[in-house]
């Protein structure tokens, strides 16, 4: 066991953990953050996508010892009670999910994309989501959810008064 210090969803956490334990298991089992889903455990499906130092990463492919001192954001950090993040809201409005198992990973990838590129092309959306797999839906509804979120976020920022 090794003591690790992580910043998870803006809260510093110090935990004793096997440094070879997958990050997805640390988040779910040790920290109780079950929004991050454990799918394939091989980095293929993307259900476990989180942001590590602002970059979308697959939590099953990172061991605990690799993230000591890092900042990690999970799906739990996006909403504030019933107040959903625009990407979460857009996914609901566009019916971008069916069973929902893959949804947290898609949303974390989409949020990272839209923070970096607020007006992505269809090709840029496809590229950003290429590491996420959905077994239930066609991808069209997921892409429409990302486009709707981009549009809503852009309209929201345009409506904000400029700081003087």
* The top level CATH class name of the largest domain: Alpha Beta
Q: Kindly provide the radius of gyration, computed on alpha-carbon positions and rounded to a whole number of angstroms.
A: 16 Å
Number of strands: 5
Separation of the first and last Cα atoms: 52 Å
Helical segment count: 5
Predict the CATH topology of the largest domain: Ubiquitin-like (UB roll)
Strand order of the largest sheet: 2-1-5-3-4
Outline type: globular
| Strand content bin | 15-25%
InterPro entries: 2Fe-2S-bd (IPR002888), 2Fe-2S-bd_dom_sf (IPR036884), 2Fe-2S_ferredoxin-like_sf (IPR036010), 2Fe-2S_ferredoxin-type (IPR001041), 2Fe2S_fd_BS (IPR006058), Beta-grasp_dom_sf (IPR012675), Diverse_Oxidoreductases (IPR051452)
GO molecular function: 2 iron, 2 sulfur cluster binding; metal ion binding; oxidoreductase activity
Organism: Natrarchaeobius halalkaliphilus
Keywords: 2Fe-2S, Iron, Iron-sulfur, Metal-binding, Oxidoreductase
Structural description of this entry:
GO terms for molecular function: 2 iron, 2 sulfur cluster binding; metal ion binding; oxidoreductase activity. Residues 2-78 form the 2Fe-2S ferredoxin-type domain. It comes from Natrarchaeobius halalkaliphilus. The protein has helices spanning 23-30, 86-93, 103-116, 122-128, 140-159; strands at 2-8, 11-17, 49-52, 55-58, 71-73. 35% of the residues lie in helices and 15% in strands. It is globular and about 50 Å long.
């Amino acid at each position: 066991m090794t003591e690790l210090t992580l910043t998870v969803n803006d809260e510093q956490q110090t935990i004793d953990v096997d440094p070879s334990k997958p990050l997805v298991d640390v988040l779910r089992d040790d920290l109780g953050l079950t929004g991050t889903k454990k799918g394939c455990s091989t980095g293929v499906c993307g259900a476990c996508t989180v942001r590590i130092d602002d970059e979308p990463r697959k939590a099953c492919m990172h061991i605990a010892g690799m993230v000591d001192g890092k900042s990690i954001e999970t799906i739990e950090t996006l909403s504030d009670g019933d107040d959903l993040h625009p990407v979460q809201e857009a996914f609901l409005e566009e019916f971008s999910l069916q069973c929902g198992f893959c949804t947290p990973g898609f949303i974390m990838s989409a949020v990272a994309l839209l923070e970096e590129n607020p007006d992505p092309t269809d090709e840029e959306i496809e590229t950003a989501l290429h590491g996420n797999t959905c077994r239930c839906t066609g991808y069209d509804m997921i892409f429409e959810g990302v486009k709707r979120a981009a549009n809503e976020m852009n309209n929201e920022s345009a409506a904000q008064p400029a700081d003087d």
